[in-house]
Design brief:
The N and C termini lie far apart (82 Å). This protein has a two-stranded antiparallel ribbon. Strand 1 and strand 2 form a beta hairpin. By secondary structure, the chain is mainly alpha-helical. It is built from four helices and two strands.
Length: 130
């Protein structure tokens, strides 16, 4: 009896350890009513571990910070005016009143005057942290 166990036990362990080769064309998954069955308990590879502290979402910039970011672009250029127009979309009026804030510069029709208007107000804004 011990001799039979000594022969059969390693053979059983060997059979469990070897994998059968996968077929070249696997069978399609089983379906019920034309819909594939849901596989419950399939394990996905674990995702990368995240740090203990979740990353804080970037804070949106204020209007003043956006306008000051436009100051980094060369002065008296179309690019700077385009940057300002991205903050305050232009709404030209035929005879706008004198601007009292940067938001009112969008009503100026001429591009050069609008750029000068924006520059005048943005230069007065205290430097904000970025």
């Amino acid at each position: 009896m011990i001799l039979a166990l000594a022969i059969l036990y390693p053979a059983a362990a060997f059979a469990q350890g070897t994998a059968t080769p996968a077929p070249a064309n696997p069978a399609p998954p089983p379906t019920v009513g034309g819909k594939p069955l849901v596989q419950v308990g399939t394990k996905k590879p674990p995702a990368e571990k995240k740090s203990a502290k979740p990353a804080a979402p970037a804070k949106p910039l204020s209007i003043a910070q956006k306008l000051q970011a436009c100051q980094d672009i060369d002065d008296a250029t179309k690019e700077r005016l385009t940057c300002y127009d991205g903050v305050y979309a232009p709404q030209p009026k035929p005879k706008p009143p004198a601007a009292k804030s940067a938001s009112e510069c969008r009503f100026v029709k001429e591009e050069d005057e609008r750029l000068t208007c924006f520059n005048r107000f943005v230069d007065k804004i205290p430097q904000l942290p970025r």
